[in-house]
Amino acid sequence: MSTTTDSPRNAPLPLLVLGQGTDLRTERGVECPGDLPAPSDPDLVARARAAKEALGDKVFVLGHHYQRDEVIEFADVTGDSFKLAKDAAARPDAPYIVFCGVHFMAESADILTSDSQTVVLPDLAAGCSMADMAAIAQVEDAWEDLVAAGVAERTVPVTYMNSSAAIKAFTGRHGGTICTSSNAKTALTWALDQAGDGGKVLFLPDQHLGRNTYVRDLGGALEDCVVWDPHRPNGGLTPEELESATMLLWRGHCSVHGRFTLEAVEQARREIPDVKVIVHPECRHEVVEVADEVGSTEKIIKTIAAAPAGTKWVVGTELNLVKRLAAQFPEQSIAFLEKNVCYCSTMNRIDLPHLVWALESLVEGRVVNPIRVDDEVARYARVALDQMLALPGETHKD
Ligand code: SF4
């Protein structure tokens, strides 16, 4: 597991077997290199305020919708990952971007901002389990298999924003595009058109977003979708299955949205008369199929904001956002779809002590946890991101 080699086929997997060995790369941030303030420090809010004030326009704090309230309070802007990366790029005067989100988001911000700006992730352990389900070595292996099977030249990769910079770069190198949960339909339509008759899309890393977009938004058949399992030879597919499929869905999912169930939807409908179910497209297909509304976090916020008083909702997305919506719209009834779902644990790694530590360090002239994407990786990732921006009619409105 711990051996390293240039060959992707033999490259180490991203996860260690429990109790065996260490991998500082995957365990990044487990040990904080500085003195974190104690969570019980009663002055934390005042310290964050003072540090932010001292830094003034030199710092721009981004807060993803799934962040804790204690962190969102100090965000200059909030939004989904792509909106935040674009917000950061629109502030070239701010030398420091403190990204309260997860690792792949900070990477995207680094790619889209200028070289003179530094992106800081307050806790390096804030990763994303979905992004980690597609390691670059595994994806390179899969591509080799597609080449060997004679289908790579008619396969276009479409990669969800929730992926590492290395996977985005792979997408750029192979003529594909990035997508978000807002524009997946446009991106997939473009990619299928590029692939041509008998062509295929390799959708990374979220199988649910790929399947939901193809079947629900484009009217494709479920039978055209197969799951590529990176842990099995040839993705676990027979040559016939591979040949007949249109959508090659990487076997990845969001550990939060993947837990909402059809039973929870049915229970909500039984218990709350006239309830409307709104879910994120990272949810499983059977959940999305029975929901009243499906959309990105930005769409969920806008839909609820526009609903008349008295509307009853159950919402299938991350709990921090749902709680915030319930507080913001008390004239509506807003409930969480699943009793047993926890918060996104990696998003929650960013807490007030880490934010204070990052900001106070900047005040002292020390940059902690900078996120820097390798130049070559950034160049090709940018190609895939630019392709997304060039999609027909592309406007990332929400
Ligand atoms: S909510 Fe899901 S996709 Fe978003 S950061 Fe958490 S694990 Fe990743």
UniProtKB/TrEMBL annotation:
Single GO term (MF): metal ion binding
Protein EC: 2.5.1.72
Pfam family, one: NadA
Catalytic activity: iminosuccinate + dihydroxyacetone phosphate = quinolinate + phosphate + 2 H2O + H(+)
Record-listed iminosuccinate binding positions: 64, 81, 160-162, 181, 280-282, 297
Entry function: Catalyzes the condensation of iminoaspartate with dihydroxyacetone phosphate to form quinolinate.
Protein name: Quinolinate synthase
Native species: Knoellia koreensis
